[in-house]
Amino acid sequence: MNEFGSLLFLPSIAAILSLVIQNPAVTRKFCALAAWIQLVIVLSMLSQILTGHVPNLPFVSGLAVDRLGACFIVLTTFVVASCLTHADYFFQAAANRGDEYSANRVKVFYASTNIFLMAMTTVFCCDSLGYLWIAIEATTLSSAPLVYFERNKYALEATWKYLIVCSVGIAFALLGTVFIFAASQRGDIQAATLNVSELIAGSKALNFPLLRLGFIFCLLGYGTKAGIFPLHTWLPDAHSEAPAPASAMLSGSLLNCALFGIWKVSTVILAANPTAPAFQLVSVLGTITVLAASLLIIRQHNLKRLWAYSSIENVGLMVFAIGLGSGPLFFLQAVNHSLAKVALFLLAGNIIQATGTKKLNKLHGLMENAPSWAAALALASLAVAGAPPFGAFVAEMSLLTLSLTDHRYILALTITIALAISFLGILSHTGKVIFGAGKPNFKHFAEKRAVAIPVLLILCSLVIGLAVDTATWMPGYDHKHISQTQRKVAEVSCR
Amino acid sequence: MTLDTFEALSVLSAILGILILGTTLLRTNLSFYRMHTLAIAAVTAWIAHITKEDHLYVVALGVFLIKVIFIPNFLNWVMKKVDVGSDKQAFIAAPLSMHLGALMLGLSFLLSKQIPGLVGGHDSHLGSTAAMSILFTGVLLMLTRRAALSQIVGFLVIENGIYLFAVTQTHGMPMLVEMGLLLEVLVGVMISGLLLFNIKKSFEHIDVSQLTELKD
Predict the structure, then answer these.
(1) Per the domain annotation, does B33 fall within a domain?
(2) To the nearest whole angstrom, how far is the Cα of B119 from the nearest Cα of chain A?
(3) Which of A134, A165, A247, A495 is the most core-located residue (most Cβ within 10 A)?
(4) Could you tell me if residue B216 is inside a domain?
């Protein structure tokens, strides 16, 4: 328990201090610094798991970190630290433009961000499905103030939808959790439990029909929160109305939390029956999401909504990876998406601040106005669209290869077509923003400082694409094993 | 079929839930919600008495303090502040939606027999009927009502249905999970209540069906 406490200690202190400190300029610097220190703390505490020396780190019953969870904690903390560093610039640029946010609003922003970070860290520490549910709902509640930051009508509508749609969605995940608990009570398992490790250990003894029902409810519930099509309606609104650093955090770390919930429940049903037809639903849902989002990307008129739909597309890919039973590929896709998308949302925030508009048809000539921003935007769009040599290419390639070896030809074909469509859509949209005549009233501030964090993120994505040998480094690269067992079981059942 | 006390109480709470559908007066809605939740707290306490699981008494007390006392009072206060008395222009007229709710109760009775795995002898059939009916009631409230306050009540009713299902079918989830859940509901209601003030301030109404500014 002490270790778990020390994992959350610094953000909780930062949350309190950001409410106490009166000068927003101090809070901005201090919280960014605290987030980077938190990253160091997390890395040192979890180093044993990250390097694979220890399979998992249990805190108390119901709270434990496995290797995948540890990777996600590091990713989340890194994303939040980057966003808070950029937020310092963001608020300063807003003040420079003459619309400084009141000290109170900035206080609430930083306090909620720190609570949000605590909630997200807890999500990845959960072994109990009950705690997982609580932590994921806590991420919704703590991020609602971030969405409402602008305090205008649009932000209000987006926050209301976000809160209500996600809460109701998550309520169904709770029903699913209750079903899974009932499944363990009615099975031959020793004591009823919600702990994933115990559920997996006794997976054959669970009451399977109830488990299946619970799984479907959890998939739809957490899927609402992750933005699976057609339950995604809240996502573009919330992502486009939140201020840029908050949109980046919502997209780069919050979506991963909901997907991690789906992954946790999936591991239980995979252990109970690897060929369950209900589980096949996951990869199909992922494919539909990728296809729908890539079609919706084409007809976007708003820069931030464009990136929101691109996030939905990536969520589809991650759900597909979960549907293939591959945790490592899920993480690889998640890390590449987070890096590129955070860079894109932060750049979008810069552009919107400088031009005063989000409308794509009013944005043009970024190359003339701010060449470094244009270069970063081009590279980040390529990275998110999955062009080589960026990391997303490796992830998408391995995803397609794996689905082909698993004989899911139709799904693989659909995803390939959808990826091509979204590639063209994203590049044609960003092309229009970058090229053309420059805007006369482009007011930017500290051009170089504004791209520091996006460039750092793009470089990370590049390093992952070039230097990473997926077969060796990825945590427990065991999807081959899973798919082989799946096939063997399928062959046996066919006979 | 014998009717246990806790089953009778569950069905009572389902019926009180359906009565919420029967009026568009928000104050009356909240009173019915209070009674409906009180019945659920009583079910919890009664099950604690039958099964001798002491932690359920604590949960029942928590439900009573938070969901029966605090939340309706808080929402009443919000309602007075925003000065909205009734939920005009519900998509389906109140009497009709109440009858729909009653129909759903019958449907839940048939459906709860179909839940796989819950057909064993010691499962409470009526308990899951009531829980499912409450779930449907909540969904109906959220779908047919326009006022933001009714949406909050609808969410609370859905949550009650899930909670009742957990209590009657599994005799309560682990204590910490139940407590976390209560806390979550409390914070969620308070945040949405505060948002409601701002909706009233910015839009001069709390009709959520008119929140349609954001689109592609």
Answers:
(1) yes
(2) 11
(3) A247
(4) no
Find chain A residues with C-beta within 8 A of B158's C-beta: 168, 171
The minimum CA-CA distance between A332 and chain B, rounded to whole Å, is 30
Q: How far is CA B135 from CA A362, B59, B132, in A?
A: 47, 20, 5
Kindly give, in sequence order, each residue whose CB lies less than 8 Å from that of residue A323, ignoring residues fewer than 6 positions away. Answer: A279, A280, A281, A282, A283, A284, A285, A286
The more confidently predicted of residues A490 and B185 is B185
Residue of A nearest to B153 (CA): A164
* Of A214, A222, A334, A339, nearest in space to A285 by CA: A222
What backbone torsions phi and psi does residue A66 show, to the nearest 5 degrees?
Answer: -100, -175
Cα angle value A408/A411/A417 (rounded, 5°): 135
Q: Which are the contacts of A136, defined by CB distance < 8 A and separation ≥ 6?
A: A123, A170, A173, A222, A225, A257, A258, A261
Instruction: Please tell me the distance from the alpha carbon of residue A149 to that of residue A116, in angstroms, as a whole number.
Output: 14
In this complex, do A156 and B202 lie within 8 Å of one another by their Cβ atoms? yes
The C-alpha of B13 sits at a distance from chain A's nearest C-alpha, in angstroms, of: 19
Whether A188 contacts chain B with CB within 8 A: no
Summarised one tens digit per residue, pLDDT across range A342-380 is 999 999 999 998 888 889 888 888 888 889 999 999 999
- Give the gap in angstroms from C-alpha A75 to the nearest C-alpha of chain B: 26
Q: Which two tokens stand for residue A28?
A: 């901005």
Q: Can you give the residue range of the structural domain that contains A313?
A: 274-495
Contact status, residue A228 vs residue A133, Cβ threshold 8 Å: no
Q: Which residue has the tokens 């009540």?
A: B153
The answer, for A168 touching chain B at a CB cutoff of 8 Å, is yes
Residue B215 domain flag: no
Residue A386: phi and psi, rounded to 5, are: 90, 30
Cα B156 from Cα B189, distance rounded (Å): 9
Domain membership of residue A170 (yes or no) is no
A158 lies within 8 A of chain B by CB: yes
> CB A209 to CB B116 under 8 A?
yes
Full DSSP string of B15-35: HHHHHHHT--BHHHHHHHHHH
Bridge partners, residue A10, by sequence = none
A389-413 mean pLDDT: 88
Phi, psi of A443 (to 5 degrees): -110, 95
What interface predicted TM-score (ipTM) does this complex get? 0.93
Q: Flag whether A23 is in a domain.
A: no
Using a CB–CB cutoff of 8 Å, tell me whether A133 touches chain B.
Answer: yes
Please state, in angstroms and rounded to a whole number, the distance separating the CA atoms of residues B17 and B164: 12
- Per-residue pLDDT tens for A118-172? 999 999 999 999 999 999 999 999 999 999 998 888 899 999 999 999 999 999 9
Domain, as residue range, for B19: 5-210
Residue A309 lies in a domain: yes
Distance separating alpha carbons of residues A119 and A111, to the nearest angstrom? 12
- pLDDT tens-digit profile of A61-99? 889 898 899 999 999 999 999 999 999 999 998 888 877
CB contact under 8 A, B116 and A164: no
Residue A35 is assigned to a structural domain of this protein: no
In 3D space, the residue among B36, B144, B155, B34 whose CA is nearest the CA of residue B97 turns out to be B144
Q: Is A312 an 8 Å CB contact of chain B?
A: no
- Mean per-residue pLDDT for B23-36? 91
Q: With beta carbons under 8 A apart, name residues in chain A contacting B51.
A: none
Total tally of structural domains belonging to chain A? 1
Beta-carbon separation of A178 and B170 below 8 A: yes
What is the number of domains present in chain B? 1
The string of pLDDT tens digits covering residues A182-237 is 888 887 777 788 888 888 888 888 888 889 999 999 999 999 999 998 899 999 99
Q: State the Cα–Cα distance between residues A171 and A222, nearest whole angstrom.
A: 9
Residue A157 and residue B148: Cβ atoms within 8 Å? no
